[in-house]
Structures are given as C-alpha cells and as structure tokens.
C-alpha cells in the first residue's frame, strides 16, 4: 500500500530517488462517529435547526416581496449604522439572509446528518491505453488515406492558403471602427485671438482679476458654443483645450528661451492635460509653484517652464502663449506650439 | 438484478439522453475535503452571481453616450448634461427598486470573483496542483483570471462617471503611447479622439457578450477537466497517488457545494445591501477636464497603476519618433512579462525538475522550498506594485513624503522579491527540519526527567503512525545531473549547454531541501528513545493526546 503513492520507478530524466519509505501507510484513519450518528435526540435537534433555517429563509423571501411593495420607493432609513434607501436596505437584508440561511441549512445538514464516512475511488491515468492509441491512430490514418489529404498536395495547399487569406477580411472589416489619427492630435481649438475664459463661469479673464499665487482653470471662449452643436465634439475639444492660468511673482519665474513674450506680468498659461497619460492635473501648491497630477503624481514646476520635477511624466506641460486684446482680456497668441496630452510614437 | 425501471420522468430523459449512464459514473464521484478547495468554488459562484445580477442591470442600463439632461430623482445632479449611460446608472441606483442592491451585488461579486480566482491560483501554485496532468487547466484558469480583470475594468468603465472616465483616460493614454500603432489603436478603439461617443456601447458588448461568453466556455472546460482528472488531495494515511479519498458528490457535495453557492450569494447580497461600493452619483458625470484627487481603480488594477506610478519619466525622441519608456516599460513590457511567466510556470518547473510523472497528491509548501520562495517573490513583487498604486494615499494617511514612498518602491520592487524569496525558502527548510525532528524524536512532553547521575532531560513521545506517515508521504528528490560529457564512443552529448543550465537550475531547486529520514534512521531513532525512555507509559496520558492533536 505504501508504495502506491511514491515513485514507482525512476523514469528517465527525473530526480526522484527510490528509498524504502520510512513509515508504512497505515491506511485511512478509523472512522469517528459524530454525536448525531449515535444519539437520535441530537440528530433530531439538528433536523430542527436545519428546518428552522430553511423555514426562516422562506419567510424572509416572502418578507423581501412585502418590503418591495410596502416600503415607499424613496423612503430614507437612518437607524444607527443602517442608513440609505429603506426599500433597498430591507430588500437586500431579507434576500441576503434568505439566501444565506438556505446555504447554511444545507451545509449543516451535510455535515451533521449525512453519512460522513470517507470513501476511496481509484484514479486512472489521463492518457489512453495502448490498444486505444493503436485503434485511434489507425482510424485517423484511414481517414487521411481515404480523403487523400496528404497525397493531393494541390487541394491541401489551396485550402490552407484560402483559409489563411480569410484572416484578412476579418481584420479589414474592422477598418471603420474609427478614422485615422491624421493631424488631429497636433492641434486644439485654441487659435490667435481666442479669449481665455473661466471654465465654470465662462467669463473672460483680465490680468487684474488674478492675484499672485492664484490659479484658475480655464478654457477657450470658443469651447462652450460647441456644446450646443455637438456633445461629442465639445468633449473631444475640451479633452485637449483645457488649460490652467496661473499668476506667479515675475522675479520667481525662469522663462525658457523663446518664450519671453508668452506671459503677461507673471501670468502664464499651460495645458491642463498631463503629458503622461492625459489626466487633468489639478493640485496646485502656491509656495513651490508645483502642480501635481492626482493620477500618477507627476509634478510640474510652473515657474520653470512647467518642467517635470517628479513622477512618471517625461515632458513639460505645453505652454499657451498669452496676449491681451484691445478690451484688456487675456487671449491666446496662437494654438499650442506642440501636441498636448500623452506622448505618441509619431510625435517626433 | 432487479428489472426495475426508472420512474417515468427520469425514464423519459434516459430514453433520449442516456442520463442514467452519466449518473452512474458521476453520482458517487468522490471529492476530497479541505477548506482550500473552496476557493475556486467561490470564484465560480461569484461568476454565476455576476451573470444573474448583470442580466438584471441590462434591463435598465442604456449603453449610449448620447447627451441628455438629467431629470431623475437625485436632486444634486438635476439639470446636468450627461451621457445616457450615466443617467441610466443613476436611474438604476435611485428609481428602480432593488436596482442599487443589484448594482452593488454586481460590483462586490466582481471584486470577489477576481480575488477568489487569485487566491485559488495561489493555492494551486503553492501546493503544486498545476503539475502533470493539470498544466493545461492551469493555463485555462490563468486565462480566466486575465479575462476577468479586463471584464471588471471595462465593467466599471460603463457608467461613464468621473472616476471611470479617468480610468479610461489613463488606459487611452497608455494605448496612445504604444510604439508604431498607438494612435491608430486608440482611434479605432474609441472611434476617433478621446473620449468620443462610442466606447460605452462598444465596451458594453464586450462586457456582456464577448468576455462572459469566453469565460463561460473556459469554465466549462475547466470543470470538465477537474472531473476528468479527479480532484487532487493532500497526502495522508490511505491517500495515495492512485486514489481519491473523500465524500461522494451525491449527496454530501451536492448539499455542501450547493449550499455554499447560497452562502456566497447570501453574503454578497448582504454586502450589496449594507456596504456602499462605487457611489457614482458622488463623482458626477465624466468631464475630461476634471479629476478627483485620490482616484483609485478597483483593487485588481492597482498593481498596473502602481507599475506606472513608480516608473521614472524617461522618454526618447529621435528620427521623428517618440518612445515613451515611462509607459512602454511599466504598462506594455513588465505586466505581460510577469503574467506570461506565471502562466508558463508549470512548464518551466517541469522542465527544470525533469519530472514526467502524474501528480495527484499535493505538496505541502514547505516541502518545495524553492517553489514556495518563488511564489513569495511573485506575491511580493505584485504586492509592492499594488502598494505603488496607492502611493498618494499612503503618503497622506501616514504623513510620509510622496516622493520618498515612490523612491522606496522604485528600489523595493527589485530587492523585496529577492529578500522574500530567500526568507521564505529558509523558513520552509526550517519547517522541513522541524518535521524531521518530529518524526525522529517525537513531541516534547514537558516532562523533565533526572537521570541517576544527575543530568536533566526532557522526555519525548513518538507521534502517531498516521501523522508520521502524513509527514513522510512525499518525494525524495535529488537534483538532476548533467550526465557524462561524452558517451562510450567519445561522441559529445547533444545540447550540453542546455543540460548544464537545467542541472544548475535543478540544483537551485532541490539542493538545499531537507530529505525525509530513511526507514533505518526512523528505526534507529525510535530504538534509541526506547532505550533511554524508562517512563514511556507516561506517553499515554491526557497531556500526550492533547499535544498530538496540535499538528502545526
């Protein structure tokens, strides 16, 4: 018995070693009877327990239906930690407990009343027997022979070729899933002369509206009208055009070469879309001029060309060149000079 | 033989389907009993719960991104523009009776589904249940875990709320940053620029039809193979590689497993009733210019999120192209490499150990110290990435610097797994030694004996044969040898470098493992204790029984 379980013979290539087993297999432990096997009273008690659980489950199932109709749809419940929609809560409690009790009853029944003597069943190897292998090989070869699949090369090759080519339409048919990217990722709806507006109030912003240390979430003035035309164009435009406008003490700003005229008295405008994977950056720390993207914690220094000071982003936030129009409102000098948002392969 | 026929309805089916033959083979099919065998059941049952509650949700959910003005009963969002998907999710949550309950059961069951699959996978791993003939079932199970994670992610993307939109934006950014085809893939998946107005309806079809269909097919094969191979069992008295000892399907497991389904369903229903999950109405509709601080994905996406978070920002631009290593490495290389390694582990281990036998007896983790160590290393790697996914919350909750947490993790993901491997392996080896000690010298009784010449010693009492057998019922495995360099005729053996590598790895796997004692060693140790043990009868006291029942 004890040799059944361990390496019968060391097959070629594996490292199991044959040594006499230290302890002989004593066989399955003697069965221990439960109190419910011996004492009919105990067994009856368990029967009552199980029946009580099943009975209660039935009542709760009914209760859930009563709750569904009896409790007003919008009634609120606030009873200690139980808060929320009363209908939902009572319905859920009744259903949950009913389900649980059915399960608990069945398991109690199995554990306490059903015969719990362990039985043993033989296993068989997963593989086929030698005779079966021979039989199936013969049958298969007969089929190959009768069809001439190996002999008639022309049929075989043309069939395989045709099947392979069917893969093409399967892919080609997906072509209309979307338009090609084209130059869409390179531009936003910002353009020369577009006013910078507060993204909630939609009011244009004057330099005097901003005090040093202030950051405003802003959008181009031509964004809101898009919403009336088409929701999707609006969302797509917004996903690229969102900006932050910040006012920093001019003496603390280090302006990158070529951007000397992009700010107005320390007012700078950057893309709000993180250059990492495109989350809108939103956490500003006045004293350090850092903004942090809440998704992956890339940190950009707005006083230093929005360079990355920490985190997984690799590029500074694109800056929008600002000017002031004849009425004194902030406007864009042009669109962004580079694509906003996450990097992409052909970006350059 | 009685010529009694089936009762009429059974006869009807048997005449047409032959159900008698199926039942004859399977009604008394034996399943071994162990708590760790329930983990896969939890996964299966949560999948069923997901289908039931999911069907309910589809009756009201509108998978459309058409813009509507919300006029439902949740007054805080009244009048806001949002997608139909989000509005209908609010309707399910507030206006359909039982809707919120079903939504929350659905979400809790999804979280449980993936957790159960993962813990089930760990059980299979640490007990070696993936060995021949079950390697393919391991791959099937792993594929289901992978599909389940995608399914879950797409599922919580459907309500089109601010949190789910943020998750999708991150995914879109990763797709866009893929080399060569990134922008094309992104435009094809989202039907143009992000967010577009297509993804909810597309993802809906994938979520309710494609992936559940695949999982259902795989579950069927998975369970069929469990029945065909018969369940593995832990080694023990009377439990051999050629039998399976346990309780019959009919009636014990019908009641236990069937009952357990209701227990799992009941508990998820109670969770759905009592524990709020994904309160989308608090997040508001998706707005690509907004995000909530402390955004967190569902738990199973956390490790990917962490992988992306702790990666330093490296990017190269040359020849007019941009390679975003900060995404290629943590999102496109590391996770696929990691999951491929896990998926192929059974084949790798089989090659290293050269073991071609069928295994139906499970290993105790301590008896495979290297495998257990590797498992611990995997868990540590995964766990540290997962921690990385919450680096901001860890920083704020424990008052740490976010940058320090991130820097710590950047090193810890490399060093932690090595440390975990080494420590776990040593612990496993120590436990093996303790087992041998127990077999050879028995238990400490707590009885101190003074010998005539004044020396004090503690009495040991032998363990039961049942336990001793259980502890020794395992392979005695030695590392593979490389084999001779040349054969008898002086011809160099083929593929020698590969064999050398294999023998080195095999050495690494087995060399330090403690072998169980031989029969002679056991006999000798017992005789020795008999000679010295003049009060052996004391071993039969109550104390002895209590102590032996503690097998840890």
Automatic annotation (TrEMBL), chain A:
GO terms for molecular function: 2 iron, 2 sulfur cluster binding; metal ion binding; monooxygenase activity; oxidoreductase activity, acting on paired donors, with incorporation or reduction of molecular oxygen. Coiled coil: none annotated. Residues 262-331 form the Rieske domain. It is a multi-pass membrane protein. The chain crosses the membrane at residues 50-70, 90-110, 159-178. SUPFAM superfamilies: ISP domain. One of its GO terms (cellular component) is plasma membrane. It comes from the Bacteria. It is found in: Cell membrane. Keywords: 2Fe-2S, Cell membrane, Disulfide bond, Electron transport, Iron, Iron-sulfur, Membrane, Metal-binding, Oxidoreductase, Respiratory chain, Transmembrane, Transmembrane helix, Transport. Belongs to the Rieske iron-sulfur protein family. Iron-sulfur subunit of the cytochrome bc1 complex, an essential component of the respiratory electron transport chain required for ATP synthesis. The bc1 complex catalyzes the oxidation of menaquinol and the reduction of cytochrome c in the respiratory chain. The bc1 complex operates through a Q-cycle mechanism that couples electron transfer to generation of the proton gradient that drives ATP synthesis. This is Cytochrome bc1 complex Rieske iron-sulfur subunit. The lineage of its organism: Bacteria, Bacillati, Actinomycetota, Actinomycetes, Propionibacteriales.
From TrEMBL, chain B:
It is found in: Cell membrane. Residues 9-235 form the Cytochrome b/b6 N-terminal region profile domain. InterPro entries: Cyt_b/b6_N (IPR005797), Cytb/b6-like_sf (IPR027387), Di-haem_cyt_TM (IPR016174). Its cofactor is heme. Keywords: Cell membrane, Electron transport, Heme, Iron, Membrane, Metal-binding, Respiratory chain, Translocase, Transmembrane, Transmembrane helix, Transport. SUPFAM superfamilies: Transmembrane di-heme cytochromes (SSF81342). The keyword Membrane applies. Residues 517-552 have a biased composition (Basic and acidic residues). The chain crosses the membrane at residues 42-61, 107-126, 138-158, 170-191, 203-228, 257-277, 327-348, 368-387, 407-424. One of its GO terms (molecular function) is quinol-cytochrome-c reductase activity. It catalyses: a quinol + 2 Fe(III)-[cytochrome c](out) = a quinone + 2 Fe(II)-[cytochrome c](out) + 2 H(+)(out). Residues 516-552 are annotated as: Disordered. GO terms for biological process: respiratory electron transport chain. This is Cytochrome bc1 complex cytochrome b subunit.
């Amino acid at each position: 018995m004890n040799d059944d379980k361990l390496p019968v013979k060391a097959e070629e290539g594996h490292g199991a070693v044959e040594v006499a087993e230290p302890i002989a297999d004593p066989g399955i432990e003697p069965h221990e009877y439960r109190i419910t096997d011996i004492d009919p009273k105990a067994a009856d008690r368990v029967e009552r327990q199980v029946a009580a659980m099943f009975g209660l489950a039935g009542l709760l199932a009914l209760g859930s239906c009563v709750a569904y109709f009896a409790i007003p749809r919008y009634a609120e419940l606030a009873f200690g930690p139980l808060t929320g929609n009363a209908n939902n809560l009572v319905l859920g409690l009744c259903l949950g407990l009913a389900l649980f009790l059915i399960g608990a009853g069945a398991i109690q029944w199995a554990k306490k009343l059903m015969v719990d003597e362990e039985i043993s069943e033989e296993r068989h190897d997963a593989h086929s027997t030698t005779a079966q292998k021979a039989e199936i090989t013969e049958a298969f070869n007969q089929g190959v022979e009768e069809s001439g699949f190996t002999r008639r090369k022309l049929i075989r090759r043309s069939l395989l070729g045709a099947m392979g080519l069917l893969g093409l339409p399967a892919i080609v048919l997906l072509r209309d899933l979307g338009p090609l990217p084209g130059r869409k990722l390179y531009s936003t709806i910002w353009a020369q002369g577009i006013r910078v507006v507060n993204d909630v109030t939609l009011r244009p912003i004057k330099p005097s509206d901003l005090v040093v240390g202030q950051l405003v979430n802003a959008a181009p003035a031509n964004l809101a009208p898009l919403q009336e035309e088409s929701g999707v164009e609006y969302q797509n435009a917004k996903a690229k055009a969102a900006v932050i406008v910040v006012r920093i003490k001019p003496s603390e700003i280090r302006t990158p070469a070529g951007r000397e005229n992009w700010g107005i008295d320390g007012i700078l405008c950057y893309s709000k879309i993180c250059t990492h994977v495109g989350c809108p950056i939103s956490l500003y720390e006045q004293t350090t001029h850092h903004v942090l993207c809440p998704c992956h914690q890339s940190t950009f220094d707005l006083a230093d060309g929005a360079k990355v000071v920490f985190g997984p982003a690799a590029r500074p936030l694109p800056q929008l060149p600002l000017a002031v129009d004849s009425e004194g409102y902030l406007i864009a000098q042009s669109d962004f000079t580079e694509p906003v948002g996450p990097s992409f392969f052909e970006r350059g | 033989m009685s010529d009694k026929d089936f009762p009429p309805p059974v006869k009807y089916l048997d005449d047409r389907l032959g159900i008698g033959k199926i039942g004859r083979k399977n009604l008394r099919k034996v399943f071994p009993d162990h708590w760790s065998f329930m983990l896969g059941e939890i996964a299966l049952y949560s999948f069923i719960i997901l289908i039931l509650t999911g069907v309910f949700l589809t009756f009201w959910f509108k998978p459309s991104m058409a813009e509507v003005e919300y006029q439902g009963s949740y007054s805080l969002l009244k009048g806001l523009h949002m997608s139909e998907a989000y509005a209908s999710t609010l309707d399910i949550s507030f206006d359909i009776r039982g809707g919120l309950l079903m939504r929350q059961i659905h979400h809790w069951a999804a979280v449980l589904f993936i957790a159960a699959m993962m813990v089930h996978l760990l059980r299979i791993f640490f007990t070696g249940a993936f060995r021949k003939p079950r390697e393919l079932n391991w791959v099937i199970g792993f594929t289901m875990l992978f599909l389940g994670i995608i399914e879950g992610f797409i599922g919580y993307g459907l309500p089109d709320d601010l949190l789910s939109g943020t998750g999708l934006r991150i995914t879109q950014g990763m797709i866009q940053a893929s080399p060569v085809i990134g922008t094309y893939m992104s435009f094809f998946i989202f039907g143009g620029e992000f967010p577009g107005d297509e993804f909810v309806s597309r993802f809906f079809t994938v979520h309710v039809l494609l992936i559940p269909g695949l999982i259902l097919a795989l579950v069927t094969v998975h369970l069929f193979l469990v029945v065909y191979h018969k369940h593995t069992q832990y080694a023990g008295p009377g439990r051999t590689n050629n039998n399976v000892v346990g309780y019959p399907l009919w009636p014990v497991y019908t009641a236990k497993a069937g009952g357990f389904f209701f227990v799992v369903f009941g508990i998820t229903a109670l969770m759905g009733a009592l524990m709020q999950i994904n309160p989308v109405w608090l997040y508001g509709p998706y707005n690509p210019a907004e995000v909530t601080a402390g955004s967190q994905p569902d738990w199973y996406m956390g490790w990917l999120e962490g992988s992306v978070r702790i990666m330093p920002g490296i990017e190269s631009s040359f020849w007019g192209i941009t390679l975003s290593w900060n995404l290629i490495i943590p999102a496109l290389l590391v996770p696929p490499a990691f999951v491929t390694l896990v998926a192929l582990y059974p084949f790798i281990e089989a090659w290293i150990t050269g073991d071609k036998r069928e295994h139906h007896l499970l290993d105790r983790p301590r008896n495979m110290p290297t495998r257990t160590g590797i498992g611990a290393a995997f868990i540590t790697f995964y766990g540290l990435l997962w921690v990385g996914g919450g680096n901001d919350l860890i920083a704020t909750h424990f008052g740490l610097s976010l940058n320090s947490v991130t820097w710590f993790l950047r090193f810890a993901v490399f060093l932690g797994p090595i440390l975990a491997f080494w420590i776990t392996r040593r612990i496993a080896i120590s436990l093996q030694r303790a087992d041998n000690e127990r077999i050879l010298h028995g238990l400490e009784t707590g009885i101190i004996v003074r010998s005539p010449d004044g020396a004090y010693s503690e009495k040991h009492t032998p363990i039961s044969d049942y336990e001793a057998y259980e502890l020794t019922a395992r392979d005695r495995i030695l590392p593979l040898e490389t084999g001779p360099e040349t054969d008898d005729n002086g011809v160099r053996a083929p593929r020698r470098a590969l064999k050398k590598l294999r023998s080195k790895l095999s050495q690494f796997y087995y060399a330090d493992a403690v072998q169980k004692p031989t029969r002679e060693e056991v006999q000798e140790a017992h005789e020795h204790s008999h000679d010295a043990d003049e009060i052996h009868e004391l071993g039969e006291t109550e104390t002895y029984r209590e102590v032996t029942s503690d097998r840890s």
